[in-house]
């Protein structure tokens, strides 16, 4: 596939924005403890507690993202075997701070993202669904213009549980269908 130069530049811009969002703490930081049989001490990493002022600043950055960074005027899509198309860029939602989900999804859709990836195990399907619904309700996007992906968690891999898990995720998200449902 040969990409137009303008798209390559937009991809670089989106990549840099995504990288900046990650580096600047737009994603939640996890705290973990790790122990092994041979280890005598527990390793700990601390979580940075973000003040209300910092959260308000992050929300303001997300709200003004379209104005500040621009909007992708065209998204490159790849054809699938069944005739549908998938956007080449997607917003991943793992480890997204629950307090920022509405703003992250809103900013992504405003900036031209049309693919959103989520999963049951992320524990944020309801908030993501509400954010998607808000952008549909305000007329920014139609459901059929979005490519929503989710994943089946390993505890539901039994054939009799797949449909149950898929329907539960759809209900959590407030959607009628997924564009892609994968095994996680």
TrEMBL record:
Residues 101-184 form the NADP-dependent oxidoreductase domain. This is Aldo-keto reductase. It comes from the Eukaryota. GO terms for molecular function: oxidoreductase activity. Residues 1-30 form the signal peptide. InterPro entries: AKR, Aldo/ket_reductase_CS, NAD(P)_OxRdtase_dom_sf, NADP_OxRdtase_dom. Keywords: Signal. Pfam families: Aldo_ket_red (PF00248). The lineage of its organism: Eukaryota, Metazoa, Ecdysozoa, Arthropoda, Hexapoda. It comes from Agrotis ipsilon (Black cutworm moth). The keyword Lyase does not apply.
